Amino acid sequence: MIPNRKHIRLRGYDYSSPGLYFITICTSDRIGFLGKIENTTWFPSVIGKQAEIFWNEIPGHFANVELGNYVIMPNHMHGIIEIAGATHVGTGHGLSLPNTSADANVGTPHGVSLPNLSHYDINVPPEQNKFGKTIPGSLSAIIGQFKSTLTRWCNINQHAFRWQRRFYDHVIRNDVELERIKNYIVNNVKNWEDDKFYMR
Fold first, then answer.
1. CA 99 – CA 54 distance, rounded (Å)
2. What secondary structure does DSSP assign to 47-80, as a single string?
3. For the segment 47-81, what is each residue's pLDDT rounded down to a tens digit?
4. Is pLDDT of 33 > 60?
5. What percent of the chain has pLDDT over 90?
6. CA nearest 171: which of 60, 89, 58, 57?
7. How many helices and strands in the chain, by DSSP H and E?
8. Beta carbons within 8 Å of 8's beta carbon, 6+ residues apart
9. Quick one: which H or E segment has residue 140?
10. Were 168 and a residue from 24, 33, 71, 102 both cysteine, which residue would form a disulfide, CB within 3.0 to 4.6 Å?
């Protein structure tokens, strides 16, 4: 169960910096473009299958990016993205955590801070420089390219499809959070009917 509390971005945090991020991307109006779940079994649509292909191709377009656990659901997807760099704190999981000691008072200190996903759409302005353009290599650049690639593929192949304009991100600060988020992703299909995004 995702805690019912509002999360905001870390003040002053550089989202192009090395770190581990939990990403949620939704379809427009939460329409089940990506597939369906029946009896806890996932059946991807053609669009859902293509979304998985493009997601796994992200590291081929961004050399400093590694992918962790992810799941594609009927009307949204979750994934862990690592922006690699030399300032990581090792986790022993093949992924690294950002050093956010300066932000120690942000979020829940006991490490159970999963986001309230109902607020993702209004709290996540894209990373932009002072001229209003997305910073290359930032989280917004990575997710923006993924979303536009799938949208373009759908247009070319005449599949009706739209993403919600924004996405939700959460900076993973410690191993407890990482394990909690990984378990949430792994069990998302099984817990579909209890999901905040569940629609029949």
1. 29
2. HHHHHHHHHHTHHHH-TTEEEEEEEE-SSEEEEE
3. 999 999 999 999 999 989 999 999 999 999 999 99
4. yes
5. 55
6. 89
7. 4, 8
8. 123
9. helix 139-156
10. 24
Spell out the residues 6+ positions from residue 14 whose beta carbon is closer than 8 angstroms to its own: none
Using the structure block, give the residue that is written with the tokens 């930032």. Answer: 138
- Reported as half-sphere exposure (CB side, CA atoms, 13 A), residue 42 has a value of 20
Residue indicated by tokens 């650049």: 141
pLDDT per position as a tens digit, 134-165:
677 789 899 999 999 999 999 999 999 999 98
Tell me what pLDDT residue 6 has.
39
β-strands 76-83, 89-90 pairing: unpaired
Cα-Cα-Cα-Cα torsion 8, 13, 17, 18, nearest 10 degrees, comes to -60
Kindly list the structural domains of the chain, giving each domain's residue range(s) and its CATH number in brackets, ordered by start.
Answer: 19-194 (3.30.70.1290)
Distance separating alpha carbons of residues 72 and 90, to the nearest angstrom: 27
Strand ranges of the sheet holding 76-83, from the earlier edge strand across to the other edge: 65-72, 76-83, 19-27, 163-171
- What is the full DSSP assignment across 9-29? PPTT--TTSSEEEEEEEEEGG
